[in-house]
Amino acid sequence: MEELEKLKKDKRSLKSSLTKSLNELAVELSLEAPKKERTTERLQDIEKRRDELLELLDNLQALYKEMKETTDAASIEEEADGIVDRVDSQTSGARLFLAKGAAKTSDVNSNAEKKSGKSESTCATDGHVVDPNKQLE
After folding, report:
1. Reported pTM
2. Can you tell me the distance from the alpha carbon of 48 to that of 91, in angstroms, rounded to the nearest whole number?
3. E strands, the chain, where?
4. Cα–Cα distance for residue pair 124/93, rounded to 1 Å
5. Using alpha carbons only, what angle is made at residue 86 by residues 85 and 89, rounded to the nearest 5 degrees?
6. 134: helix, coil or strand?
7. Angle at 131 between CA 128 and CA 133, to 5 degrees
8. How far from chain centre, in Å, is Cα 29?
9. pLDDT of residue 1
10. 8 Å CB contact between 84 and 54
């Protein structure tokens, strides 16, 4: 029982921390000129916290299954799915912001290369565009 209470307490703490990080990201993106580096750092922090929380939820779910608490185990699985959906939803704007920045940089580089005589096909392979749907690593 002691382990269960510790996991529940840690879950509350991690969820609170994740919410705080998501709110900080929203504030950063609401600025007139959000900084790419800070946005990237915040996304990485959010993903780290999300992963820690999901690992803890896995441990909690395993404990519930061990205790034959199938209803609680199922609710933990639903909670984990909800957290993944919430983080994806609330970070999609930041990923899009970073992707647009990468696309603009690529466009600027492509235009400069065209002026310097490089062919467009070379520019397409040199450019790097971030997929906003891909999770940061």
Report:
1. 0.73
2. 13
3. none
4. 25
5. 85
6. coil
7. 170
8. 14
9. 76
10. yes
126 has a pLDDT exceeding 80: no
**Which among 57, 93, 91 has a CA at the least distance from the CA of 76?**
57
Cβ distance 50 to 22 under 8 Å? Answer: no
Lowest mean pLDDT among 17-31, 62-76, 120-134: 120-134
The alpha helices in 31-69, defined as continuous H runs, are 36-66
**Count of all residues that appear for the chain in the document:** 137
Q: Cα separation of 137 and 47, whole Å?
A: 9
Distance separating alpha carbons of residues 119 and 80, to the nearest angstrom: 48
From CA 20, how far away is CA 1, in angstroms rounded?
29
- What is the residue whose two structure tokens read 């993903």? 47
Tokens of 101: 């920045």
**pLDDT at residue 29 greater than cutoff 50:** yes
Residue 37: band (very low, low, confident or very high) from pLDDT cuts 50, 70, 90? very high
Which tokens is 130 given? 């971030």
Among residues 90, 84, 89, which one has the least CA distance to residue 26?
Answer: 90
